[in-house]
C-alpha cells in the first residue's frame, strides 16, 4: 500500500504540481538561487525518506532498485559511457567554441549571463553541486528504479517505462511544446536504458555529470573579467 501511495505521488501529484506552477506563474517575489536549490534538496530528500519507508515496509533491497554492484555484463560496460563520454563531451564543446566567430561566442556568453538559474558565487556553486547529486541520484532512484519495480507487475515492463518516462518528463514543467517533448523523450530513453541494463549507476553518473559540467563551465563564464581572469561574484 505504501508502494502504491508513493507511486501515485510520483506519477500524478508531483508532475501535476510542476506543470501547474510552470503554467500559472506566481505573483510572489522570486526566491534567491540558494533558496531554490535548498527547496529542491528538501523536496527530494523528503521523497527519498518516503522511499526508504516503502522499501522497509515491502522488503525491497538496493538491488531491487537497480543499485546492485555491476559486476559484469551490460551494466558494467555501460559505466564506460559516462566515464569516456563526459570528458569527450567536454572537449567537443571546447573545440566547437574555439571554431565559433567572436560575435557568436559573445552571444553565447550573454545568454549564459542572462540565466537566473546558474550559480554565480562559490557558495552557490557548492550548493548547486549538492542539488545536482540529489537530482541525479534521487530522481533516478525514484523514477527509474522504484517506479519500474512497482509498476511492472501492474502494467508490464514497457508500460512502466512509458508511465515513468511521461511522469518524469512532465515533472520538468512546461515552457513550450518542444521543451516538454524533449523532456519526456529523454526520460523514456533513460528508463529504457535502465530496463535493458538493470543498473542505475551509469545513469546516475550521466544525470549528475552533464549538468555539473555545464554549471561549472557557465560559472567560469559568469566570473570572467574582461581580461580573461576569473573572480568571484558576490
Automatic annotation (TrEMBL):
Pfam families: Rce1-like (PF02517)
Keyword ATP-binding: no
Domain named CAAX prenyl protease 2/Lysostaphin resistance protein A-like: residues: 125-210
Organism of derivation: Duganella dendranthematis
Positions of transmembrane segments: 37-57, 69-92, 146-168, 180-196
InterPro entries in the cross-refs: Rce1/LyrA-like_dom
Keywords: Hydrolase, Membrane, Metalloprotease, Protease, Transmembrane, Transmembrane helix
The name this protein goes by in its record: CPBP family intramembrane metalloprotease
GO molecular function: metallopeptidase activity
